[in-house]
Design goal:
The protein has 211 residues and is of the alpha+beta class. It is built from 7 helices and 6 strands, in the order H-H-H-E-E-H-H-E-E-H-E-E-H.
């Protein structure tokens, strides 16, 4: 059994001599596994500033999942080996047939998955992350979401109305409430040129995001 424990030595309780602590069945005890936050939940809440740290922890959790599977494999192995060592001797039934109980096949150890990098862990979520990060304009990181797009459209319509009424000189500066991954931030646009520049960058980035 000791040789069978080598793959999970980093995951089990060891004594002062760095030997596995075994119970009466000869089985080890797993160490307390780390607790990781759910990455999709973090992303949905916009909490992505320390996402690499959580992704690295998530990669470790996947290794712990394997260690638990391996411990279950050891439990099955002991039970089957015990069963096979205590098979009843063949006997002859009333019809003269020799009856023998066949040994059970030994289980296969689960294969340990490679340790993923934070980039690999986050790859399925990268598009959503990029959408949250968005574009930077005047120091504000504006998310590429529909709300900001609608806000720009509303601002454009308001500017057109102001021009119709001859009030465009009173329109700027205007504050745009930009949704960011850190909440709503005010982006002040001082004139029409700056507004158009911001709108063009946003629209082109959002267009590229969906292509």
């Amino acid at each position: 059994m000791t040789n069978n424990l080598e793959p999970i030595l980093d995951f089990i309780v060891l004594d002062d001599e760095q030997e596995p602590v075994l119970n009466e069945q000869g089985l080890p005890t797993l160490l307390q596994r780390p607790i990781a936050k759910n990455i999709p939940d973090l992303i949905s809440k916009g909490k992505i500033d320390n996402l690499d740290m959580f992704a690295e922890l998530h990669a470790q959790i996947l290794q712990w999942d394997w260690a638990e599977l391996y411990l279950n494999y050891l439990i099955d192995l002991i039970e089957i080996e015990d069963h096979n060592e205590n098979l009843p001797v063949p006997y002859e039934n009333e019809e003269g047939e020799v009856i023998s109980v066949q040994p059970l096949p030994l289980p296969e150890a689960p294969e340990r998955p490679p340790l993923m990098t934070p980039t690999e862990v986050l790859e399925p979520y990268q598009k959503h992350i990029n959408k949250l990060i968005g574009i930077e304009f005047k120091g504000v990181q504006v998310s590429l979401n529909e709300s900001n797009q609608n806000g720009l459209s509303a601002l454009k319509s308001a500017l057109e109305l102001a021009k119709e009424l001859g009030s465009e000189n009173e329109f700027f500066p205007v504050n745009f409430n930009a949704e960011t991954r850190q909440g709503v931030k005010v982006l002040t646009l001082v004139d029409e040129a700056e507004f158009k520049n911001f709108g063009l960058q946003f629209v082109m980035a959002r267009k590229a995001f969906f292509e």
